[in-house]
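Consider the tokenized backbone below.
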């Protein structure tokens, strides 16, 4: 088991181990005692036992894409899973076993190319399965296919005591329940996810896009809102405010990505948007041949490496005046690389979820992805996010764990009963707080967990 100790490694070695795989270049000033570079399940078991011997906490890094760098915790042993890559595919059963640091792109590269299958992982290609699925997994076509964690049939877990357990609906049910929506507060370390897969729509993977001047924001947004609830159920719908490049004006971009068995069905599905779209596009395309890999490339372009990020998000109330609530967020971006996103969640948001920790959703998901390069722009960009969210949050029912930072703003992340049950499970399975859990202000939550309450009501 390879370990980088803070007290004995060179500064360069330690710093690389501490934050080398952290996506966000806004590096946290938090310092683990050691970083364990796990390559197998046994390394994870031994790392948890080592933490018990040293009487310190355990943090876990899967993909390193947490915007708030939850894996980097003071006086902890950080288990870095970047070198632990395992994948087994049972194509006839449409099942796979995958280690947490496998990214959506890595997983689907194998599934699509070798088996004509796919898994609705994260849209950003380098998001690891671990954090993504523990947070619920707002993956490809979530509005129709449901949350990615609903496709988790079982998890293998190293508990806070260092025991390796298999958890599903029949055994160790509490940990299985918590693994689907607990986020960074899960009271153990997942070593494998057992996943149910989709067929990959090779011939019917198509997209339509409509780019409007930002002056048409209200009209174009209302059109999207009107057609989403009854739109085809193999099509995901997103609206984005962004600058196409650094020399352009801001635009309002609407994207429809459909995943049908054949091109004819895709064209039929996308025709509704084509026929009803407002006139006045700057650019548009209809039922263009597309692919998962091309979408990953587009997402990578919008979420570049070696940049500074601040994100926040909200599930807006179903009856909110969405264009009015989000107008500032969509028309006043603080940097040419920043963008704001609305993601349609209806009809998934209208059905009863399975019995699992994940329990927060609404028809309207909104997120800010504030991206910039220079440290000198930190105050301006951070203030813009704070100001926008201070106005938006009172129109929300809660937030998604994956795009949140518990240090800067409190919100609701689960239904009240689910939150209470989750915190009880955390205390039962990790009464000493061995697993770091939720990184709130001052990293003080411990076994208590999060309050699960809106900022403005506290």
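A designed sequence for it:
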């Amino acid at each position: 088991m390879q370990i980088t100790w803070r007290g004995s490694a060179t500064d360069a070695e330690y710093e690389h181990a501490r934050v080398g795989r952290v996506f966000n270049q806004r590096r946290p000033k938090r310092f683990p005692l050691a970083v364990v570079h796990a390559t197998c399940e046994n390394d994870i078991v031994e790392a948890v036992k080592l933490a018990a011997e040293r009487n310190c906490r355990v943090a876990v890094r899967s993909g390193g894409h947490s915007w708030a760098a939850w894996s980097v915790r003071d006086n902890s042993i950080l288990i870095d899973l970047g070198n632990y890559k395992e994948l087994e595919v049972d194509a006839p059963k449409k099942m796979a076993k995958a280690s947490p640091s496998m990214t959506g792109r890595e997983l689907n590269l194998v599934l699509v190319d070798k088996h004509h299958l796919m898994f609705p992982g994260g849209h950003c290609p380098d998001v690891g399965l671990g954090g993504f699925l523990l947070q619920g997994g707002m993956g490809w076509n979530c509005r129709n296919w449901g949350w990615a964690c609903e496709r988790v049939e079982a998890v293998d877990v190293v508990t806070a005591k260092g025991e390796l357990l298999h958890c599903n609906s029949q055994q160790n049910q509490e940990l299985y329940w918590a693994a689907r929506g607990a986020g960074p507060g899960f009271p153990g370390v997942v070593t494998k996810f057992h996943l149910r897969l989709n067929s990959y729509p090779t011939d019917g993977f198509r997209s339509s896009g409509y780019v409007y001047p930002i002056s048409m924001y209200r009209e174009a947004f209302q059109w999207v809102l009107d057609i989403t609830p009854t739109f085809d159920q193999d099509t995901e719908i997103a609206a984005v405010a962004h600058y196409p490049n650094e020399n352009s004006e801001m635009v309002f971009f609407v994207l429809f990505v459909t995943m049908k068995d054949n091109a004819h069905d895709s064209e039929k599905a996308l025709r509704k948007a084509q026929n009803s779209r407002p006139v006045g596009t700057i650019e548009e395309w209809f039922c263009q041949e597309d692919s998962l890999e091309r979408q990953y490339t587009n997402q990578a372009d919008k979420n570049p490496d070696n940049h500074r990020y601040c994100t926040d998000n909200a599930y807006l109330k179903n009856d909110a005046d969405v264009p009015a609530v989000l107008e500032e967020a969509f028309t006043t971006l603080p940097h040419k690389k920043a963008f704001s996103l609305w993601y349609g969640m209806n009809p998934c948001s209208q059905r009863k979820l399975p019995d699992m920790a994940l329990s927060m959703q609404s028809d309207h998901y909104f997120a800010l992805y504030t991206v910039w390069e220079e440290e000198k722009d930190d105050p301006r960009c951070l203030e813009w996010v704070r100001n926008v969210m201070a106005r938006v949050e009172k129109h929300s029912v809660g937030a998604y764990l994956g795009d949140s930072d518990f240090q800067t703003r409190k919100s609701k992340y689960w239904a009240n009963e689910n939150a209470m049950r989750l915190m009880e499970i955390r205390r039962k399975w990790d009464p000493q707080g061995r697993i770091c859990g939720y990184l709130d202000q001052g990293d003080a939550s411990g076994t208590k967990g999060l309050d699960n309450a809106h900022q403005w009501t506290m």
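The radius of gyration is 21 Å.
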